[in-house]
Structures are given as structure tokens and as C-alpha cells.
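Q: Hi! First time doing this. I have a protein sequence and I read that you can turn it into a structure. Is that right? Here it is:
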Amino acid sequence: MFGDDLGRQGDRCTDPTCYQAKVSAHVAQTIAAKPELVQISTAYGGQKEGSPVLPRNKYTAIRDDKPKSNDEAKRPEFKVCKFTTEAIITEGSDVGTLHKVCANPACPVHHPKQKPDRDDQRWKAEQEKQRKEQAVANATGVRVLSAIGAAVPVRLLKRDLLFVIERLASVLDESRLEMLARQHGIRQKRDDGGLQKTLNAFLRRADESTLSRLLVEACILLAASRGNATAILKEAATAYKVDTEAIATKVRQEFAAKAKAKKEPKPVAKPAPKAKKAA
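A: Yes, that's right. Below is the predicted 3D structure, encoded as C-alpha cells:
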């Protein structure tokens, strides 16, 4: 065996450099004699670019000894396949020794394909089913919306106005819903189902002009609840050519008048003269 011969040669040469040179010479001589040998390394890691040497994670080393149990016999290193070939270690430990290996990544014996787990298959099938159902639902929704849009007349009718305003009112928070109701003198009655129900009853009795006004007001209130309320109100005022400064001036004057009225003392009422008794 090479190891014994090298050991005896090593006894006569204690210089590590000399021993390494003998190992390298033996490897080169063996590869020249058997160019079909697979060159392997006992170290794990990435394969160097252009290197013919396979790292440890790129092959399965076949053991020569017999398995000691049935479970051990099932391990890949105790199995021989049609791709089993001779290899020589050129890097790592035991350089120069020959081994049987399988270096074919497609080998069904040493690299069997993992059987998919049934639960995993069921989960994937369910995910695919949901994906398809969602895709169908999305496509259906887009087409239905397109058909509805095509059915909308050039001039919105009361039916259209009522449909939109009811949907807008349903997403307004309580405070803004109350604000919208106050604009039109709507007061919630006791035991009448709440403000939303009262407002819906008012909407169904309202004419197109009132519904149009309510539609714009509800849009402004909804946008204000989700953004900069001041900026949104200013944009709406500009679109409808409303003089906000004039309104602000009038409001300030009204507040000033109320404040002044509170400060002025109220006139004291004179007591009524007592009636004279008859003689």
C-alpha cells in the first residue's frame, strides 16, 4: 500500500519538506497513470475556479467495511451504485490515498430526490386554489365595476345620487355624520334607530338638488377625516369659488358681538308700583 511505502520512506527522511515532495510526486505519478481518477478533497467548502478537485460536499465516499446493522446498511456510504468510481485525495488529510466515491449529483442511490410531504402538498394545493379563486374574484369585480360605470347616465339621476350618498354616509365617523346632519336640520329622534337611520330616511325623501349638495359635503367630510382638513376644505372652496375670507370675517364679527354682549351689564328691571288701598 502507498501509505506503508510512504511511511518507510518517511523514516529515512525526517524533513517535512522532503516528505511533502514525495507525496506530491506520488499523487502526480498516480494521476498520470490513471487520468480517469476523480480528484477529491477532505475539506468542505466551495470549489476553486478551474480546479479539478471536488470538495467534500460534492461527493459521497463509499466505505469498504461492512455495515454492522440493518439501519447502518441503509446509509449512503455503505451503498454502491453504477456511478461508483475511484478517486484520489489531492487536498486535505490522507493526501495520496485512493477511495471509492460517487460524485454524480443525479445519482438516485446517493442523492435521492426528497419525496414531497403530503401535508406540504395539501398546503400548496390549497394555496393554489385560493390564488385562482382570488384571481377570478378580482377579474369579476373589475368587469362588474366596468359594466356599472357604463350604465351610469351622463346626468346623475336621483337613484344614482342616493346610491352614492348612502355609501359615503355609511363610512363617515359619528362626529362627521352629526355635522352633515346638522347642515340640513336633521335631529335624531329618541328610539328611532340612531342617526344613520334618521339620515337615510331624510335622504330618501330629499330631492335631487339636496342630494347633490349632500354628496359634495359628504365627500369633503370623508376626505377631511383622512387628510389635512384645512387644506381639503380650502381646495373645495376654490373649486366652487367660495370666498373663505369673507366668511371668516363674518364669523369673527359674530363671535365678537357675542363676547361683547356677555360683558355688557343687563338692565335691572324696576319693581312695579304697588296699588293704593281704597279709602
